[in-house]
Amino acid sequence: MPSWFMRTAVACAALFIAALVFIALAPYERDMGLVQKIFYFHTPSAWMFLTAGVVCGVASARYLANPSPRFDRVAWASAELLVLFGAIALVTGPLWARKTWGVWWQWDVRLTSSLLGWMIGVAYLLVRRYAGPGSDKLAAGLALFGIANVPFIYISVNYWRTIHPPTSVVPKLPLSFGVPFYLSVTAFTLLFVMLLRLRVHLEEQRARMDSLYLSLDE
Amino acid sequence: MSVLQTIWLIVRKDLTIETRSGEIAFTTLFFAISCILAFAFALVREGKPPEDGGAGVLWIAIMFSGNLALGRTFERERQSETLRALLLAPTSRPAIYLGKLLGLMALLTAAELLLVPLVAYFFQAPMFRHPVWLTVIVVTGTLGFASVGTLFAAMLVRARSRDMLLPVLLYPLTFPVIMAGVRGTTALLQPEVDYALLRFWVQLLISFDAVFITLALWTFEPLMTDEQR
Question: What is the pLDDT of residue B229?
Answer without folding.
Answer: 40
